[in-house]
Write a structure and sequence with these properties.
Helix 3 (99-106) packs across helix 5. The chain has a 5-stranded parallel beta sheet, with helices on both faces. The chain has a two-stranded antiparallel sheet with strand order 3-4. It has 7 helices and 9 strands; from the N terminus they run E-H-E-E-E-H-E-H-E-H-E-H-H-E-E-H. The chain starts with a strand and ends in a 7-residue tail after the last helix. The protein has helices spanning 22-29, 66-78, 99-106, 124-130, 151-162, 173-180, 212-229, and strands at residues 4-10, 33-39, 52-53, 63-64, 85-96, 110-114, 135-141, 197-198, 201-202. The chain is of the alpha/beta class. The structure holds 3-[1-(phenylmethyl)indol-6-yl]-1~{H}-pyrazol-5-amine (JDQ). 3-[1-(phenylmethyl)indol-6-yl]-1~{H}-pyrazol-5-amine binds at residues 90-92, 116-120, 141-143, 145-150, 153.
C-alpha cells in the first residue's frame, strides 16, 4: 500500500476535528492515510509556554519563535520512517495552491504541515529546513486573502490531496479522471440531474439525447465558455 502520512503542527490542533469525517475519515480508517496532530504549545519552554515574540525591526503583531517549531519538526522527522519529507509552511506569501501541486503532493510519502498564527513563523524555520537534503520545503498560499492562521489552509490542501490518492474515492482514480476528461485548467461543465423540468427550467436537450459523442462535445464547449468568461488561461 502507498499510505501517505501527515503530521500537522499547530497551537490549535482542535481545528483538525473535521478530518475524522467523510472521505478523509474513511481514508484514515482504511489505512490509506495516517494523520498525527501535534500541539506546538507542548514544545514551548518556560512556565508561560510562550510561542511568539515581538518582531525584529518593529511593526504590528507578534511573530512565532523558531525554537518550538524546530523542536516540533525535528521530533516529527525523527519519528518518521519516510526517506523524504515535504514540509509545507502555510503563508499568504507562498506559491498559490494549484491542482498540479495537489497532484505532486499526492505522490509524497510524508507531509508535515506547519500551521502558524499571529503574523506567521520566523523565516529562519523555512530557511533552515531548506538546507536539509531529505526535506522539501514549500511555502504555500491557498489564495490571495488573509486568514487568521494556517489551519484552515491545511484542511483545504489535505482535502485536495487526499481525494487524489488511489482508493480514496468510491470509483478507481482512472475512472474518476475519465468522468471529467477535461484539461486540468478548464473549469467543470454544468451538471444536471432529475427532474428534467424544475421550476420552469429545463435540462439542456442534448443531455437527454443519449448521443454520447454529442454530449461530450457540448460539455467541452460549455467548460471552455465558462473558462473564457472567468478570464482564465487555457492551453489552446
Ligand atoms: C498564517 C497572517 C497577517 C499572516 C498566520 C499564519 N492563503 C492564505 N491566507 N492566509 C494564510 C494563507 C495564512 C497562513 C498562515 C496566516 C495566514 N497568518 C495570519 C496575518 C500577515 C500574515
Amino acid at each position: 500500500m502507498s499510505s501517505l502520512s501527515f503530521d500537522l503542527i499547530s497551537i490549535f490542533p482542535d481545528y483538525f476535528a473535521p478530518l475524522k469525517l467523510s472521505l478523509i475519515g474513511k481514508a484514515q480508517e482504511s489505512g490509506l492515510i495516517d494523520i498525527t496532530l501535534h500541539d506546538l504549545r507542548d514544545k514551548a519552554a518556560g512556565v508561560h509556554k510562550s510561542v511568539d515574540d515581538t518582531p525584529y525591526g518593529g511593526g504590528a503583531g507578534m511573530v512565532m519563535s523558531p525554537e518550538p517549531w524546530g523542536r516540533a519538526i525535528d521530533q516529527v522527522v525523527a519519528g518518521s520512517s519516510a526517506a523524504h519529507h515535504d514540509l509545507i509552511i502555510l503563508t499568504p506569501a507562498g506559491e498559490k495552491l494549484t491542482q498540479k501541486i495537489a497532484t505532486e503532493l499526492s505522490h509524497s510519502e510524508h507531509i508535515i504541515f506547519a500551521c502558524g498564527r499571529y503574523e506567521g513563523i520566523d523565516h529562519r524555520v523555512s530557511e533552515y529546513y531548506q538546507t536539509l537534503p531529505n526535506i522539501r520545503v514549500r511555502e504555500i498560499s491557498i489564495g490571495d486573502y488573509v486568514l487568521g492562521g494556517g489551519e484552515v489552509a491545511t484542511l483545504v490542501i489535505m482535502e485536495a490531496v487526499i481525494r487524489l490518492i488511489p482508493g480514496v474515492l468510491g470509483n478507481p482514480n482512472s475512472l474518476v479522471e475519465e468522468s471529467h476528461s477535461l484539461p486540468d485548467e478548464i473549469v467543470e461543465y454544468p451538471n444536471y440531474t432529475k427532474p428534467a423540468s424544475w421550476r420552469g427550467l429545463e435540462v439542456p436537450e442534448v443531455l437527454l439525447s443519449g448521443n454520447h459523442a454529442l454530449i461530450k462535445a457540448w460539455r467541452l464547449e460549455q467548460a471552455k465558455a465558462r473558462t473564457q468568461k472567468l478570464g482564465r488561461q487555457t492551453s489552446e
